[in-house]
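Structure request: Cytokinin riboside 5'-monophosphate phosphoribohydrolase, Streptomyces zaomyceticus.
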Amino acid sequence: MGIPEGMAKPEEQRLGPVLRRRDQVQPGTTDQRLLDTEGDSEWVHTDPWRVMRIQSEFVEGFGALAELPSAISVFGSARTKPDSPEYEAGVRIGRALVEAGFAVITGGGPGAMEAANKGAREAKGVSVGLGIELPFEQGLNPHVDIGVNFRYFFVRKTMFVKYAKGFVVLPGGLGTLDELFEALTLVQTRKVTRFPIVLFGTEYWKGLVDWLRDSVVAGGKASEHDLLLFHVTDDVEEAVALVTKETGN
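Returned structure:
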């Protein structure tokens, strides 16, 4: 339906909070577009509809995770092999975090994420996986007890931070680096407080730490104090002690 026959197109149109004038006035009303049974289905792919999907993801995530006990998010590569020392370290970290009184949150995938979930499950703790819709994603690993799948990375990253008291970061690739620097930025800008970040694997992280110190800090792009925003260790007990100490758990 459009403008009734015989009526001129209005010069001004109010659609909720949106004001349209002149050539931007649309035919019909919002109710008409809602109630019409025929028409193009492309509207389900428009930005306003995506806002509703984004909102629903936040609601579902908040609802699923609101009653979690104190938790630590553990990150690491999906490509970590089950027979590797890194995988075993992930299992030990997941187990030790549960024994220290934490739930364990991961990205829910294979590799290092699966290892941490496995350790948490073996220790009879709460094992959480926050998955992401990807064309090559394998789905949530079998050691996840509470799982939420997200369409949008930024919603998922909000959940990692909102429901965790700290991060333990195992060797990983671009996704792991994204999550690491997101956390570092939030702490540096004081968007979150008392948020420990532990990098596990000194040899793996050495190049990154050297670059931050010798290029980023030395070039005046960050301060010396920013290097204190994270800790680096090879010891599982020390990693857990660091997050426990800083969170007061």
